[in-house]
């Protein structure tokens, strides 16, 4: 796991190996079981996460109790919790592990202290957030412009492991369709490629 973190830090910083190791040594790395809620909709965020191994689902419940999946975070993805420093900010989403996962868990209250101690860490965090924001914008634009079948095919190309890692009803929600529609689309696409 250390090598994954070092590779990621090298991508966004010019930290020496000793400083990378010092940061890694100060991190809380934890295993979470499938079905563990990291944060529930309506709770105040106190932690941030980086997925070393596994899959985390982001979803929300509407007034009628309908779940809408808005993202899946997998290996080497940071779960960005924006506006955590505002008073009385509550999460609009629940984050739940879809698989047994290994996560780096950061304490949002200790974030400034970590930045003071390791000044390139703040730059790395900013770059990670910019990258995540850019991906979110691209995903949103793709979602709006593509048909349901094209959305499914986009996932097959960009995130093919999701197809086998998450339950079909969650994937369907993520793609903005019913499980039945997804099943029909999968059959059509599979038939064309076989």
Automatic annotation (TrEMBL):
<dbReference type="InterPro" id="IPR000595">
    <property type="entry name" value="cNMP-bd_dom"/>
</dbReference>
<protein>
    <submittedName>
        <fullName>cAMP-binding domain of CRP or a regulatory subunit of cAMP-dependent protein kinases</fullName>
    </submittedName>
</protein>
<keyword id="KW-0418">Kinase</keyword>
<dbReference type="InterPro" id="IPR014710">
    <property type="entry name" value="RmlC-like_jellyroll"/>
</dbReference>
<keyword id="KW-0010">Activator</keyword>
<keyword id="KW-0808">Transferase</keyword>
<dbReference type="Pfam" id="PF00027">
    <property type="entry name" value="cNMP_binding"/>
</dbReference>
<feature type="domain" description="Cyclic nucleotide-binding">
    <location>
        <begin position="11"/>
        <end position="94"/>
    </location>
</feature>
<dbReference type="InterPro" id="IPR018490">
    <property type="entry name" value="cNMP-bd_dom_sf"/>
</dbReference>
<dbReference type="GO" id="GO:0016301">
    <property type="term" value="F:kinase activity"/>
</dbReference>
């Amino acid at each position: 796991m250390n090598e994954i973190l070092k590779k990621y830090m090298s991508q966004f910083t010019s930290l020496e190996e000793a400083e990378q190791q010092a940061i890694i040594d100060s991190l809380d790395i934890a295993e979470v079981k499938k079905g563990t809620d990291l944060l529930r909709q309506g709770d105040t965020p106190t932690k941030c996460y980086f997925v070393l191994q596994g899959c985390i689902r982001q979803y929300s419940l509407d007034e009628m109790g309908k779940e809408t999946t808005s993202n899946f975070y997998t290996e080497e993805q940071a779960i960005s919790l924006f506006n955590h420093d505002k008073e009385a900010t509550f999460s609009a989403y629940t984050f739940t592990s879809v698989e047994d996962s290994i996560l780096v868990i950061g304490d949002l209250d200790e974030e400034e202290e970590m930045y003071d101690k390791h000044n390139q860490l703040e730059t790395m965090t900013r770059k990670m957030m910019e990258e995540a924001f850019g991906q979110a914008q691209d995903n949103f634009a793709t979602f709006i412009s593509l048909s349901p079948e094209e959305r499914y095919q986009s996932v097959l190309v960009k995130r093919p492991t999701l197809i086998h890692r998450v339950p079909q009803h969650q994937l369907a929600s993520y793609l903005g369709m019913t499980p039945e529609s997804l099943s029909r689309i999968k059959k059509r696409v599979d038939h064309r490629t076989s």
